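User:
Hi there, any thoughts?
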Amino acid sequence: MYITNQWYLVCLIDELKEKNPLPKKILGQELVVFRGKSGKINVIENRCCHRNVLLSLGNVEGENIKCAYHGWEYAGTGKCVSIPSLESDSQIPAVCVKHYPTQEVDHMVWAFIGDAELAASVALPPIPEMKDRPYVFNYHVLEADLKLVAESLIDPYHIDHVHVNSISTFMGNLNRSTVDFNIEMDGKSLVGTYYRKNLSSFFEKFYFGFEPEIKTNFEFHFPHTSKLQINFPGKKRVLYIYEHFYPIEGNKIVMLQITLWDNIFAGFDAFARYFMLKKSNKIVEEDVAFLESNLYNHTTQRLNDMLIKSDKVSIEFAKLWRANTQQYSHATMAEAADSK
């Protein structure tokens, strides 16, 4: 099931190169992102309606994207505006490819996948840190259950086990019998806080703070964005991790991880980016091994999770996910019935 009528993060501005279109695939739909001479960014169907080849193999000419096969050009609206081989006494056919509503916000390009008339009524997930903080990002493609991927970043207990070699005690530890998870939910989002014990090494504590606990904030915004915020106790050092995820096709999922920070390795920007990118890649690779191993991917029916009382975050997440996916399923079925 694809969750449409949502804004999806198509790419970061850093990915767009001058005159080079950028191909993307989201929810089974082939897209191409390009920036015109004026700087305006467009997202249209990645298809030339002449011979149905990929427009992303072409290049940007002025405000248009030009197909490399026969030179047909398309405006950002998806309309064909130039055909080099057209006879002088003929008009350009009234043909176009699909155009996707687009927003450019804080180094990010979002496209609305679904009914374009609904775009204005759907909000983007809040990612305010992208406005003015250093960041690195990486993409990972995996075959997994979308729900499990969506929850993976905010699952509090897995950090102590899955990431014992990459994170270790850097973000604190939950080796206690009871953790007080403060969770708030609305119709589409889950936000919360909890504290991890500061078991860092002496050198980590010297840099990040000696206080006994590390405050952790987490968020999930249905259907595709999670956040983890580690508030180190000293010197206002903060680490932010976002994950944005969506199916490419079937069970094949893209996970985009964006890591941002405040006052970490300040003054050593190049090293900070190198360190954060290397560390975040390692962390996601560890997650992917478990996400892809989930038995649901290899069975014809859903296997029930055996959750316990301490899995409070997972339990509340499951309620939110179930409510929204059921609501979406009912809406999709109603639309299908109305179309008959």
